[in-house]
Amino acid sequence: MAGKNPRANLLQGTLDMLILRTLLYGPAHGHQIGKHIQRTTNDFLQMQHGSLYPALHRLERRGWVAAKWETAPDRNREFKYYRLTEKGRKQLLVEESQWKQMSEAVARIMWPAAEES
Amino acid sequence: MKWWQLKKRNADLERELQSDLELEQEEQRARGLSPDEALYAARRALGNTPLIRERTHEAWGWAPVERLFVEIRYALRVLLKSPGFTLTATLTLALGIGANAAIFSLVSAIILRPLPYPSPAQLVGLGQWRNQKGEGYVQTGVSAPNIVDIDAQKNIFQQVAYYRWAGFNITEGNHPESVDSIKCSLDMLPMFGVQPLMGRFFTADEMRPGHDQVAILGHRLWQTRYGASPAILGKTIRLDEKTYTIVGVMPARFRFTWDQEMGVFVPLALTPEELSEKGRATSRDLETQARLQPRVSVKQAQAAMDTLAANLAAEHPDANKGWGFKVEPLHAAYYRHIGQPLLIMSVAVLFVLLIACGNVANLLLARATVRKREIAVRAAVGASRRRLITQLLTESVVLAVIGGVLGLLLAYIGDRILTLQMTHYRRFSVPNASVINLDWRVLLFALGLTLLTGIIFGLAPAFIASQTDLNESLRETGTNSASESGRRRMRNGLVVSEIALALVLLTGAGLLIRTFLGLMQVDLGVDPANVVTMEIDLPHYKYSEPANQTQFFRELLQRVQALPGVNAAGIEQPGSRVFFQPEGQPAVIPGQEPTASLNVVSPGDFAALGIGLIAGRQLTEHDANGSTPVALISQTAAQRYWPNSNPVGRHLRILSRVYSGKSETATRALEIVGIMKDVRGFDLWEPRSDIYVPFEQHPISFALLTVRTAVAPLSVVPSIRDAVLAIDNEQPVNEVMLLSEQIARTYGTLRLPMTLVWIFASLALVLSVVGIFGVMSYTVSRRSHELAIRMALGADRMTVLRHILREGLGVTLIGVAIGLVAALSLSRIMADYVYGIKATDPLTYAAATLVLILASLAATYIPARRAASVNPMQALRNE
Predict the structure, then answer these.
(1) Chain centroid to CA B295: how far?
(2) pLDDT tens profile B99-135
(3) Which chain A residues are closer than 8 Å to B51 by Cβ?
(4) Distance (Å, whole) CA B67 – CA B150
(5) What does the pLDDT look like over B152-194, one tens digit per residue?
(6) Residue A117 confidence (pLDDT)
(7) Are A87 and A65 in contact (CB under 8 A)?
(8) Which CATH number do you get for residue A49?
């Protein structure tokens, strides 16, 4: 079903990176991360919050993020906060540079004139 | 993450999703939506929660395990919904798996469990053997000088050890007590890699005659007789009126010859005569075992022994010509006699399991048809074929596991029964029988077998069931299709193989039964009614003179014969094998001497046992010391060694005993005065050559008292005991037994394996008949439409009946044909176990075939009649 939405397809490969990047600002819980990505992309990614959670748990299993139930500063209830680990930081750099190489490569083919100028 | 954290993880995820939902809901409400609308919006934003859960679970890495649990839960639910099917299938499998586990626990206890000694593979048994004319292969112990020569092969053997059974009486305290005991050589106990619990083993010095009055106690005797006293060393024990100093105690776990608990060990001091050149022929009764050097194989040892045997035969032709040495793994030597029966039982029981699998597979196939719609629905909502097969296989494995657990219960009961039977019939001599139980090997075997059967009987039905055409299945009708005929072929194939397997088992069981009946009709040569026997063993410390022994028995016989109710009484010392020279034959070639069992008897023994005279005369009281030495021979001996002449009046000369070589009559020629009918002893299968000599001319100290009575035989036993005590008030009488009981026991040892195979064959018959019944019933119910049309078009009931019967018969006949071929090719393993018939006995095969055909026709008849009694109008309306 994911195949029917090209944008969701794009998301699959880069979701991990987007989450890691979001967490660079500091610890956040799932809803916050989802909202941040939605708002920042002006809802272009049309992402359902739910799809974040498998990714978050995967990142946690790999040790790139750590999670802990903590009371939110502004309200009296607990949320599961994810924070970036050292390993996650390194991973983010790796993914970022891979993404850059990839998009540059794509760009060189798609807009060759732009490079010459 | 570990699997046991799954539950906590799950709660964690639920809480996380819930809080996301709530936050979203709050935000939506803040935008002014009503509570209900906000909830819906929040749910939309979150997405498909079951899918999220599933994906997240996969992220945890335990999804396959979780899925398996789901499958198992589902399978259990499905199975519980059809209790009839589940019960039939699990019971069938329980029978199959249970019977296999029970037989395998025999295999495990006897063959797989290593001997309880360090490096057991290095231990070998050594024996001398020769090919005896008329009797075939004869194996004995190894003579003392030969052992010395074998022991010299240091590159082959680490140790060569030997022993003799001793059978001491402890002659101190109030009553003499007999004790299992052996005399063993210096290396015997150290060779088993054991250390004494206390004290020491024997020294080389103690292996010399006159220095050998030392003893090592078995653990149990030390506990029961000496209260486990720690101060036992240095104390003495009186054995057969001789004093031995106790020098050691064996540890509790030690068993001699695999499973024997010995009371006393004493040194085996060989006499100078035994060790001299003469001993080569006169001490072949030494039971010999050895430990191979590391990295020497049994084969290499055998090759070295073959060379040695050839050399010894050349150097000492009188004693060693014709004799070879045999080296075999000690463990195998212990179970050799039971290996083949175990193989037969294992094959039989495996067949039962295969038939059981066939039946369950058939049940599953029939169910698959019924469940077609369910499977189609699952496929329609997105289950892949792989997933469907996994699910169906899970179901069959779950079935098998339930069957396996029940089967282990059956196996446990079976093991207890087997242990009882085998320890009861000691002559069946199953080593290690007391430890037949469900050990880890059996459990592992049962587990493997269970999973394997689950997959074997489940795989094909699962493949076929998952192969559904959605359109066709979801529509109500459409019963006859291509896949339907494939299923029918498979069902018939299963039944054909079941019938073939059942036929193999039936013929095997039939052969064993005919063998047993044949042996029951063997003329034992004795009349067992009203005969009681008992053992009298005169201690040699009291009766050291032959004249005293003979006097005791002479007086005893007079007293017993005079007792009221006694018709006849005699004594006999049952045969030990001897070499002899028949007169009027060419001189004996060393290595070719005729052998026979030498029985020392009193004249009354033949009357007591009811052994008939064929020619000549019986023994009388006049055949006493000082008169002409005489002998009687058995019919078989007469035919074998005096083939074309009358042996009565001829002479024979006893050369030496096969095992001990001792013979006090070696110089005397015995006149043959009569020929007796053959007597079969414990070996029912072969008549043997016997020589009978009078006890007055051949003094004995051990004898079996045989008494034929006019009244109930056991009622005279007290007065016989009194008669014994009247002569010697310390002389015990042992092993009082009815002759009929002894014979029943001998047959009992045969009956056990036969009964087992017979049980398996009956199971096989029942299961395969149930199989054909199931298939034919199913066929009839599937074809009711077609049959109704036939009948509506004018076929009468008989035609329909015959049609169905013919179809059932066709399947049966194919199975029978395959089964006959298989049974014939397997008949070789039965060849040693049949008596009076060939392993390819046509009558047995015909009878088994007939039984199977009749049984399956009967099983077909019921559904056939149902088909014929169908009301065509009703059947067609029901469509």
Answers:
(1) 32
(2) 999 999 989 988 898 898 999 999 999 999 988 766 6
(3) 50
(4) 66
(5) 999 999 999 999 988 788 888 766 677 889 999 999 999 999 9
(6) 44
(7) no
(8) 1.10.10.10
Structural domain containing residue A72: 2-116
Residues of chain B with Cβ-Cβ distance to A50 below 8 Å are 17, 46-49, 51-52
Strands B630-634 and B669-676: parallel
Into how many domains does chain A fold? 1
The answer on pLDDT for B427 being more than 60 is: no
The predicted model scores a pTM of: 0.76
Long-range contacts of residues B236-239, Cβ cutoff 8 Å, at least 24 apart: B237/B170, B237/B172, B237/B264, B238/B170, B238/B171, B238/B172, B239/B168, B239/B169, B239/B170, B239/B171, B239/B179, B239/B181, B239/B215, B239/B264, B239/B266
Nearest to B19 among A34, A57, A79 (CB): A79
Nearest to B88 by CA among B79, B75, B76, B101: B79
Cβ partners under 8 Å of residue B821, min gap 6: none
| Interchain pair B17, A53: CB under 8 A | yes
What size, in residues, is chain B? 879
Q: Please report how many Cα atoms fall inside a 13 Å half-sphere around the Cα of residue B822, on the Cβ side.
A: 23
Residues 52-81 of B with CB under 8 A from A: 52, 55-56, 58-61
Who wins on pLDDT, B98 or B369?
B98
Residue among B433, B153, B161, B102 nearest B291 (CA): B161
Distance from CA of B10 to the nearest CA of A (A): 12
Q: Does B577 score more than 90 pLDDT?
A: no
Give which of A43, A51, A39 is closest to A14, Cα–Cα. A51
Backbone phi, psi, residue B102, to 5°: -65, -45
Residue A57: which of B44, B49, B56 has the nearest Cβ? B56
Is residue B137 exposed (0-12), middle (13-18) or buried (19+ Cβ within 10 Å)? exposed
**Alpha helix locations (H) across A24-77?**
30-40, 52-62
pLDDT of residue B176: 67
Inter-chain contacts counted by CB atoms under 8 A, chains A and B = 56
ipTM exceeding the 0.85 mark: no
- Residue B731, classed as helix, strand or coil, is coil
Nearest residue of A to residue B25 by CA position?
A31
What residue of B is the nearest CA neighbor of A61? B60
Query: Would the pLDDT of B409 be above 90?
Result: yes
pLDDT > 70: percent of chain B: 94
Residues B20, A34: C-beta atoms closer than 8 Å? yes
Contact B46 A50 (CB under 8 A): yes
Separation of alpha carbons A95 and A98, rounded Å: 5
**Cα–Cα distance between B217 and B11 in angstroms, integer?**
67
Which of B746, B753, B836, B750 is closest to B522 using CA atoms? B836
Q: How far apart are CA B543 and CA B558, in angstroms?
A: 19
Say how far apart CA B319 and CA B581 lie, in whole Å: 16
* Segment B273-325, tens digit of pLDDT: 889 888 888 888 899 999 999 999 999 999 999 999 999 999 998 888 889 99
pLDDT, averaged across chain B: 86
| Dist. CA B170–CA B56, nearest whole Å | 79
Q: What percent of chain B has pLDDT over 90?
A: 37
With contacts defined as CB-CB under 8 Å, which chain A residues touch B42? none
Q: Kindly tell me the number of DSSP H helices and DSSP E strands found in chain A.
A: 5, 3
**Residues of A engaging B, defined by a Cβ cutoff of 8 Å:** 29-31, 34, 48-51, 53-55, 57-58, 61, 77, 79-80
Q: Do A53 and B56 touch (CB under 8 A)?
A: yes
Closest partner residue to B61 (CB to CB) among A53, A55, A61 is A61
Q: What is the pLDDT of residue A6?
A: 45
